[in-house]
Amino acid sequence: MSLLATAAQAVPAAVTDNPSADFSDTPWWLSLVKAVLLFVYLLLSTLLVIWFERRVIGRMQQRPGPNRTGKFGLLQTLADGVKLALKEDVVPRNADKIMFWLAPALAGAMAFVSFAIIPLSNGVWMFGHFTPLQLTDTPIAALLVLAVAGVGAYGIVLAGWSSGSTYPLLGGLRSSAQVISYEIAMGLALVAVFLYAGSMSTSQIVTAQKGLWFIIPAFFSFVVYVITMVGETNRLPFDLAEGEGELTGGFHTEYSSLKFAMFFLGEYVNMFTVSALATTLFLGGWQAPPGIAAIGDGMFNGGWWGLFWFTAKLWAFVFLFVWLRGSLPRVRYDQFMKLGWKVLIPTTLVWVVMVAFIRASELGFLGEGRVSLLGREYSRATLFVIACIALLVLAAAWMWDSRQARKKAEREADRPAEEVDPFAGGHPVPPLPGQRLVEPAPALAAARPQRATDDHPTEEIRG
């Protein structure tokens, strides 16, 4: 607590002047109405984005996409939803029935919860009350998204475990490792935004971007967040938890009917959630672009216009998701994990340290010669030396890890290849890395069926 109190005292008034959302004129029934409207907004967006994705990828692949059901195929998603609802609901014999039913409900519900702290606009008139176009806000609202995403991962893990099948279990394990790896880098990427805004409240972060969107000073954090949000939502090229080429359908292989639809819905709502958070933290949220925001004393900046600008930025990220799916192949799992643990996390740690010192110098902490931290005062030179040591330790650990990986690769290359008999088990088996085939044993060669010839077809087949 002393660290938080010291940080709060150290932040100047210019940083904490950003007001948070005012819910004083919002009765409980209006909050309920906003919750329903938010639910409808996400459902309609999901129906539209599935059609949009299929149409865009169709154009990228030089085919029309859905164009039969309704005008321009707009009702195709609705028809698919009705078809899923009417499908037979099959539950595997070895499944844990309670968890098998609970997993899709958990995955679908958690996707909606995160959107509650996203400000769609600053304030609008609704039923005679002036209320923010946001369901709720807290001093640590941005961290709520990370917490809910971690809980939502339980839905995927439980789905894989409760199915009583091998492939779903492997898909659930992959997903848990994937979420753990990329949530660390995502959380570190958001630290730079918190340092620039001086707050973790989403409404205050948006207000802090009046003069300059954080995508410019925190550009590296933006790049890391975009990579991690694709991995967090299990989308191509990072959809390794449900890689159909390796795991059939992954964690939802045994699911059908509405339970499968819940996973499908959760994935697309998650796309909107992480895109909304990126819009809020890096692109000014509901604020209009700088040139348009200055027109008419801000008449196009805020209010119901804010919802328009927020939706436009949101769909720009959704198009990025679709573009990646239509352009990139699925990466290998070891490459994906190496990117998270050996590249994104160390570089983001270095970036956070740099941003911390940049902000300290901008706010005048370092110019005064001494900084108060944890109840003690440290000189500017001491903090500079600590930062340099931290960077050197990270660089040394990175170099040591790369050297060990290179030595391991050299040892593997020098090791003689293991000789394996492809027919040892009675069926031909391809060699694994580090193995080479040998001629089969004479007894197996003699017992192996021979191909029939024109001279003695019957005898050679029998032999």
Automatic annotation (TrEMBL):
Record field: compositional bias (Low complexity): 440-450
Membrane-crossing segments per the record: 29-52, 98-120, 140-159, 180-199, 211-230, 260-283, 303-323, 343-361, 381-400
Catalysed reactions listed for this entry: a quinone + NADH + 5 H(+)(in) = a quinol + NAD(+) + 4 H(+)(out)
Renumbered residue ranges of the record's region Disordered: 409-463
Enzyme Commission number: 7.1.1.-
Membrane topology: Multi-pass membrane protein
Enzyme class, spelled out: translocase
GO CC annotation, single: plasma membrane
Any GO MF annotation of the entry: oxidoreductase activity, acting on NAD(P)H, quinone or similar compound as acceptor
Listed Basic and acidic residues bias regions: 409-418, 451-463
A Gene Ontology biological process term: aerobic respiration
Main localization category: membrane
Keywords: Cell membrane, Membrane, NAD, Quinone, Translocase, Transmembrane, Transmembrane helix, Ubiquinone
Pfam families per the UniProt record, alphabetical: NADHdh
Location(s), subcellular: Cell membrane; Membrane
Biological role stated in the UniProt entry: NDH-1 shuttles electrons from NADH, via FMN and iron-sulfur (Fe-S) centers, to quinones in the respiratory chain. The immediate electron acceptor for the enzyme in this species is believed to be ubiquinone. Couples the redox reaction to proton translocation (for every two electrons transferred, four hydrogen ions are translocated across the cytoplasmic membrane), and thus conserves the redox energy in a proton gradient. This subunit may bind ubiquinone.
Assigned protein family: Belongs to the complex I subunit 1 family.
Subunit annotation: NDH-1 is composed of 14 different subunits. Subunits NuoA, H, J, K, L, M, N constitute the membrane sector of the complex.
Name the UniProt record assigns to this protein: NADH-quinone oxidoreductase subunit H
Species per Swiss-Prot/TrEMBL record: Barrientosiimonas humi
Lineage of producing organism: Bacteria, Bacillati, Actinomycetota, Actinomycetes, Micrococcales
